[in-house]
Amino acid sequence: MSDPTAHFNTVTDTPTSSVTLSGHEPFFIVFNSGSGNDDSARTREQIEALLTQAGRTHTFLAVDEPSRLPQIAEHAVKLAREAGGVIVAAGGDGTLNAVAAAVLPSGLPFGILPRGTFNYFGRTYGIARETEEAVASLLDARIEPVQVGLLEGRPFLVNASLGLYPQLLEDREAYKQKLGRRRWVALISAIVTLWRTPTNLSLELNSHGERKVLRTPTLVVGNNALQLEQLGLPEVAHLEENRLVAMAAQPVSTLALYWLMVMGALSRLGEASNVISFGFESLTVRVRGRRRIKVAMDGEIFWTHSPLSFSVSPQRLQLLVPRDTSRLDRS
Known about the structure:
Layout: E1 27-32, H1 40-53, E2 58-63, H2 69-83, E3 86-91, H3 93-103, E4 109-114, H4 120-124, H5 131-139, E5 141-146, E6 149-151, E7 154-156, E8 159-163, H6 164-179, H7 183-195, E9 201-207, E10 210-216, E11 218-222, H8 225-231, E12 244-249, H9 254-265, E13 275-280, E14 282-287, E15 292-297, E16 300-305, E17 308-312, E18 317-322
Parallel strand pairs: 1-2, 1-3, 3-4, 4-18
Antiparallel strand pairs: 5-18, 6-7, 6-17, 8-11, 8-15, 9-10, 9-14, 11-12, 12-13, 14-17, 15-16
GO molecular function, one term: kinase activity
Domain DAGKc: 22-155
Protein name: Diacylglycerol kinase
């Protein structure tokens, strides 16, 4: 099948940062005690000890109830704006997403202490999951403006999806609650989920005057170079052109879905004849026959209404990344 969005793309200039760091800004750390698979209290104590040893002023804003995360993130932005500080998110992809959503409109510097299972966002920019290394990166950081995707105006850092992929994430979370947050648990969960015949969606795609109809079990829109590289999608270069990358599978059997999973694990998904991928600047997706659809953004699942609007945020996230590029480790 040919590229269904051959004329969907335009290129714009990449903005640069006007934010600089003195190295003395106070940190306001939104800490999700429910993220990660290690002991939260011990992790917090380690972060506090490292920052205190470095003489860096810091304030923890603990999140014990997930529903309060957006409110606490907004409060952290208010405090950081008043103090000329930096907002730091400590948690998994969902935590980073929620805090980034509050930080993005402010233009304030944003740091992360990633504690998720896969840590795609942090690894892309050389930010380690290990606490000591991540804190060291915060203390000796520069600012890099990074692209953010939007779904219905809501930001996402890694990806946003509908169809089978949100179901995979939902099932994976249920398995992790029982078996722990390990990568092999995610694999077992995916095998079980794919065993059930997924529903194929009928999607109408519109972008820059072009309209295409596509039947697929899932549509995933990516904003993360590392994840796209690991899947083997050549369109990863589009991310450097102020665009997002969409990928979808044609309707296939369960056995074929398993084979696509293997191809992705081997970084060869782009070679699969029944996978469509393309870059775009903005995209509207209408789900035929459905007014409401389950979607996932950076691992967090919610319901929204069709049609869906995907675009690149006109603002860049002012991300703190390691100044010492020799620390970069994307493995």
